[in-house]
Amino acid sequence: ERDGVEFIAVIMHGDTIESRNADAKALLNYAFANFALTPLPEESALPSVPVVYGREESAALRYGGEARFVLTPKGGESCRFTYALPEELPAPVRSGDAAGTLVVTRGGEELSRLPLVAAQDVGRIGFGGIFLKLALSLFGL
């Protein structure tokens, strides 16, 4: 471990323990010298997705897995984060439903794709709610 980053090296079919240790040390030194952990955007900074016929106008997003960092080569350009999101989600939306992808690129090369899911339930609006929205929009309220 160095600076909070930990790598694991696995050496198979090493002749002696000394050769395995030397190979593992060389691999780990290479990894620490050439790779870094780049933090992902905070979940609070993730966009939301509009919900059609939902009790809420939109659904907040969160990461679909445990990843909070992406492994990137050191030096050069910084990573670029873009979102591949649907224009809208149909209600009802359940927490954990697939809602898009975070695409990590660097220098035009795609490094990773991370799933984004709904962070909350958004129920479907009923007939009365639809009628109320229509009436409010007609009267400009």
Topology readout:
Layout lengths: L16 H18 E5 L9 E4 L5 E2 L1 E3 L5 E5 L6 E5 L4 E2 L7 E9 L2 E10 L8 H12 L3
Any overview of this molecule?
This protein is of the alpha+beta class and 141 residues long. The chain has two domains: 1-35; 40-138, Sandwich (Peptidoglycan synthesis regulatory factor (PBP3), Domain 2). It contains two helices and nine strands; from the N terminus they run αβββββββββα. It has helices at residues 17-34, 127-138; strands at 35-39, 49-52, 58-59, 61-63, 69-73, 80-84, 89-90, 98-106, 109-118. The strands form three sheets. A four-stranded antiparallel β-sheet has the order 4-9-8-6, with no helix packed on it. A three-stranded mixed β-sheet has the order 3-2-7, with no helix packed on it. The longest helix is centred in the first third of the chain and has 18 residues, at 17-34. The N and C termini lie far apart (59 Å).
Label the overall shape: elongated
The helical percent reads 10-25%
CATH architecture of the largest domain: Sandwich
Reading the helices and strands in chain order gives HEEEEEEEEEH
Rounded to the nearest angstrom, the radius of gyration is: 23 Å
Overall number of structural domains = 2
Name the quaternary structure.
single chain
CATH secondary-structure class of the largest domain:
Mainly Beta
Distance between the termini: 59 Å
Beta-strand residue percentage: 25-35%
Determine the CATH topology of the largest domain: Peptidoglycan synthesis regulatory factor (PBP3), Domain 2
Unreliable residue stretches: none
- Mean pLDDT reading: 90
Helix count from the secondary structure assignment: 2
